[in-house]
Amino acid sequence: MKSEQIKEISEQAMEQLVAALNAGRSEALTGYLKAIGRFHRYSLYNVLLIASQKPNASYVAGFRTWNGLGRFVKKGEKGILILAPIVRRKPGKKEDQDEASASVAGFRAAYVFDVSQTDGKELPQIGVVQGDPHDYRERLRNFADAQGISVEYSSAIAPARGVSSGGRITLLTGQSPAEEFSTLAHELAHELLHRGERRGSTSRRIRETEAEATAFAVCYAVGLETGTAACETSLLNVLGKFIPSDERILLIEDTSEIHMSQDNLVRFEARQPQNGLPPVSIRDLLKASLRHRPDRLILGEIRGSEAFDLLQLLNTGHSGSLCTVHATSAKQALARFTSCVLQSGVDLPFRAVKTNVGDSVNVVVHLERRPGRRFVSEVVEIHGYDPDRDEYNYGFIFDCHKELV
Questions:
Q1: Domain 136-221, classified CATH 3.30.70.1560, yes or no
Q2: pLDDT reading at 95 higher than 50
Q3: Which of 11, 156, 190, 395 lies 20 to 30 angstroms, CA to CA, from 144?
Q4: Which fold has domain 232-404?
């Protein structure tokens, strides 16, 4: 895209804002101010560009960045144009170069995508704390009082959850008990660790890391849940320990998350295109896995067409294999797995695919997450597929919902 076109698009975004303000539309200004709050690391021009092209954008990143997070841009999605700097480094020795030796030579058109335009692995949520701190919240406040640190509440500090200002901590009103406990622990760490001479010798990043690590350890010690995943990876780790040591295991993942200690283990990991090297997909690894003569296959997560290749392997003697798929119930997991098989473009009747799935999948374990805990909610045994009724035959080995009743 030429520089004239970039300039024209930027000016149009600014003109739209000015016209809206002149017409008395305060909601337009509110929308742009919200965008500035969401994308505070971007320049004003880029914020205007993002807000004018996709007003509801929340998290944006480039194509490769989303791939690095285990997500992919959906087919047919249009990129959001922004201006990216062209950075040139001053001539000199490599070891002497740093950020100060670089200069901006100009700008070029770049495209980013909002999280709503992507699909794939669930994004990690940092700072989400769940559970019931019980009386520990009051005990932590009493500890702060004993240290001569006052604790106050205010809504004016939003979007910050807490502020430490030397002998006084201000917490955001309206937080859940678990979030308030975590925020108070975080700000207390600042008060106790970063108000002396050491503050001048540490960077802001180090201080925040130390405070967050302290809050994490304290929350974990009192039984609060500091993560958001359903713990399917942990379940695979546990089940993997029951695999006999004389069996050859082939482990395939997008990103290395499963930790197994078996000696007879072969680990494969997918790769995105980088430095001129071609990509290696999960499907490529599944097709190559038979050359390693595995007794069992463990696949980190099913997201798409690789389900068909796994189904072929399950039908050729690799029983006892394990994999995960995201779904709202055990029954829905079967439907999701079936739809992933069909994404491969295989030219087979729908019922033939279901028959293969019913014959190959033996057990489905469904995990749920509730505030402060993760648990096994369903264990379902699959007895095949009934083409006349167009449904899978299955029986519940365990159903926590019935157990609770």
A1: no
A2: no
A3: 156
A4: Rossmann fold (3.40.50)
